[in-house]
Design goal:
Blueprint: H1 2-22, H2 28-33, E1 39-41, E2 46-49, E3 57-62, E4 67-72, E5 78-84, E6 87-95, E7 101-107, E8 110-118, E9 124-130, E10 133-141, E11 147-153, E12 156-165, E13 170-175
């Protein structure tokens, strides 16, 4: 009896992994931002997803097709900024339900270029983004006052940079 129960648990776990990976996002921005990369306008100011996740947003202000507007999503996220062919393109602000805010450049629906990402904890990153990740030169400030200034690659501190720890009153220089 116990053995059958263990086998059932294992099979359910495997089935869950199969379902998860068969529905895995193909784009980092889709996963992080939970919105379609491309939205086609429909009647009533709504935009229907064509990115495969069925997430639909509603244009609550302005022109969310080719211009400036505000798009609200049922998952609580909101984008305010420039659109091109229904895609976040140009300058904008993306607000997450947990209080995170990204303000900066968007290209093809995701943060690309210079921007600022703030967290409700007080952590903040100012600098370059590529494919929704910290990439290039930037400054990451932590709630306790520590600060890393330098290079980032694929979301991680990497390359030349230094950490300023105000608590210890010294600057540490190292390559990450």
């Amino acid at each position: 009896m116990k053995r059958n129960f263990v086998i059932i648990i294992i099979l359910v776990g495997i089935l869950g992994l199969i379902i998860k990976f068969s529905m895995a996002p193909t784009n980092v921005a889709d996963e992080r931002y939970g919105v379609s990369q491309q939205a086609a306008p429909t009647s009533g100011g709504e935009a229907a997803s064509s990115g495969g996740y069925g997430v639909e947003g509603k244009c609550i202000k302005g022109d969310c097709l080719n211009g400036k507007g505000v798009m609200e999503y049922p998952n609580g996220k909101q984008y305010s900024g420039e659109f091109q062919e229904g895609i976040m393109q140009g300058q904008g602000t993306f607000i997450f339900p947990n209080g995170e805010i990204y303000t900066g450049e968007f290209n093809k629906g995701e943060p690309n270029g210079l921007g600022v990402h703030t967290y409700p904890t007080g952590e903040k990153y100012e600098g370059a983004f590529m494919d929704s990740l910290y990439h290039g030169k930037g400054t990451q400030t932590f709630p306790d006052g520590r600060k890393y200034v330098g290079e980032f690659s694929k979301g991680r501190a990497k390359g030349q940079g230094h950490t300023d720890s105000r608590q210890r009153r010294k600057v540490c220089r190292r390559v990450y």
